[in-house]
Every structure is written in C-alpha cells, then in structure tokens.
Design a protein that fits this description.
α1 crosses α2, α2 packs parallel to α3 (90-104) and α8 (230-250) runs antiparallel to α11. The chain is an alpha/beta fold. It has one domain (4-203, 253-290): TIM Barrel (Alpha-Beta Barrel). It has 11 helices and 10 strands. Strands 3-4-5-6-7-8-9-10 form an 8-stranded parallel β-barrel, surrounded by 4 helices. Strands 1-2 form a two-stranded antiparallel sheet. The protein has helices at 33-45, 61-70, 90-104, 128-140, 154-160, 179-182, 185-190, 230-250, 254-262, 277-284, 293-307, and strands spanning 4-5, 12-13, 16-19, 50-52, 78-83, 109-114, 144-150, 168-170, 194-197, 268-273.
Length: 319
C-alpha cells in the first residue's frame, strides 16, 4: 500500500488506517479480544501499517490489545493514540502518555493527539498553551514523534499551532458527514496538516449492511448516532440505492466505494475499524480502487442528498 507523509513530520502512514475503538469493547457489543487481535494481524498483512487508538477506548484496553497483536512488528507500524479531554493539564498529559506507552508496550508513540478540546464532555477548561507545552516536552524527550488534534474546529487548530507544530486533524468525516469541508479542511490543506477521518463508513451505514428496519442491540452507541435517526436514515437508504450501481461497475463493495471516495479528498486518509480479519483485509483493498473524476462527482452529488439536510452541529451523537 502506497504511504503518505503525515503532515510535515518524517512519519509515513497508510491511507487506510485501522481504527480500534471497538477493541476497547466499552460501548460496543459482541467484541472478542482474540478476534480483534486476528483482525489487526490481517490488517497488517494486507498492508495497513497505521493503527489508531486512545486512552479512553476501554480505559487502555484497546492499547493493550494493539500491543498483544503488533509488538513483534513494532518497527514496521505507526501507532497513533490520544489523550482525553479530562487529562489536558500539563502533569496529566505526561501521566496519560506514560500510561499509554506502558499499555502499548513501546518506548514511543508515533502520533499523540488531543482527543477532544478542553471543556468538552464536562472537562475542565485548560489553556491550549499548557497542553501544547506538555506535548512539546514529550516530543523533546522522544516519547512522541508528532502532535495531532481531534475534533478541533479551524479556530482551535489555529490557536494550537501558535504553540507548536500540528501534523494532523482527526475529524468525523465520510460521504454522509462532511462538516470538516465547511470548516477546517482548507486550513489543513494550506498548512500541510493531514486529515485522519474517523467514522469513515459512518459507523457502518455506508457498507449497506443496515437495512431500513434495523434495530441496534442494547448498549450499542450507534443508536445515538444522528445518521440513524428516522428522518436521516430514510434519505440514507435512498442514497445507498443510488451508490450500488457505481460500486457494481467497479466490482467493489459499497464500503470500499465510500472509502475510495474519501481518500481521494484533499489531504484525507480514512480510519476504519474491523471486527474480523476478513473485514480488515477487505478494507485494505479500498486503497487500490481507481475512481475517475466523473465517478467522484457522481458520488459527491449522491452524498449531498444526505448531508444537505443535516444541522451544523459537528458532533455526530446525541449522548
């Protein structure tokens, strides 16, 4: 899989990145550690060398599963983790990073990201200068190689860059969720900041596996996703029906069509999770799909039949 430079760093990432929220098990159902480990190995063997996690995914469990799956190939992979909004004071950032290093069984984290801006999720407001000071210190010490932010607006990224180099932004971004295009994308393009899109399959909707009558199991956080609310879900089913002939034309799955479109957008790479090895290997194939300018235009127009009806709130869930 052809790699891309991460921001202005010396790190190279794969355009398809394995997301590991589900590996933490919390807020998901039916996740088995052994299957997750297998999926990570299959992803690696299929050419995906970049793995995204966070301290909050199962309180470190996701990071531990990555270590179990990939420690023997550590030098060949890129680890991206995140510090949560309640750990953004200087000393707490340092402590959180040390915990993540231990969980990941590694001496360094390639990309360390601020998961959410301070003040979100009822967290204390901490000046970005203080948080960035801690991150810069970790970088000087060699504990992290690059600094990124997640769920930041354009204004918040601009403020953070006053105190250090930001190499990536991780926003929710997919064919059905495009808020970043209105806000931060142009700044990222102008400043060589990589976009690492999460929920790149809109939490599975873009695979077409959820039919019109789908109901989630108790405890599945996707029930709170705005895209699964009735008025949006109906439009999504209609859009999927329009996308299917394009996927068939290219002899690929709906999910890989959506991923191929996404990694064709400026500066954009796609984070995608997998429960099983087959899913991981399938996701990797999206990197070799070639879409024409006409394909991209047609897919874009279909996506807008959904996104034009969404509100301007960038948060995807009604938690």
């Amino acid at each position: 899989m052809e790699k891309r430079q991460l921001g202005r760093s010396e790190i190279y990432i794969t355009p398809i990145i394995m997301g590991t929220w589900q590996a933490g098990k919390r807020m998901w159902v039916g996740i088995e550690d052994a299957e997750t480990v297998k999926a990570m190995r299959e992803a690696f063997e299929a050419g995906i060398t970049t793995f995204d996690t966070a301290e909050v995914y199962g309180e470190g469990h996701s990071e531990q599963i990555i270590a179990e799956a990939l420690s023997d190939v550590r030098s060949q992979v890129v680890y991206a983790s995140k510090v949560f909004a309640n750990h953004l004071k200087y000393d707490l950032v340092i402590e959180a990073c040390d915990r993540s290093l231990k969980n990941l069984n590694t001496d360094y984290i390639d990309l360390y990201q601020i998961h959410w801006p301070s003040g979100t999720w009822n967290s204390e407001v901490v000046p970005i200068a203080e948080t960035m000071s801690a991150l810069n210190k970790l970088q000087e010490q060699g504990k992290i190689r690059a600094i990124g932010v997640s769920n930041f607006s354009r204004a918040q990224i601009e403020e953070a860059t006053q105190y250090g180099r930001i190499d990536s932004l991780q926003p929710p971004y997919s064919l059905f969720w495009r808020w970043v295009e209105k806000d931060a994308m142009s700044y990222c393009v102008d400043n060589s900041i990589s976009i690492l899109a999460y929920s790149s399959l809109a939490q599975g909707i873009l695979t077409g596996k959820f039919g019109p009558e789908h109901k989630f199991e108790e405890g599945d956080h996707r029930a709170k996703n705005k895209l699964f609310q009735p008025q949006n879900y109906e439009r999504i089913q209609a859009a999927l029906n329009q996308l299917r002939p394009i996927a068939d034309r290219h002899q690929i799955s709906l999910g890989n069509l959506a991923l191929a479109w996404l990694i064709s957008q400026p500066q954009t790479n796609a984070i995608v999770g997998a429960r099983h090895g087959e899913q991981a290997a399938e996701n990797a194939q999206a990197a070799v799909v070639k879409l024409s300018a006409e394909d991209l235009k047609e897919i874009d127009a279909i996506g807008r039949t959904v996104t034009d009806h969404l509100d301007d709130n960038p948060v995807m869930w009604n938690f």
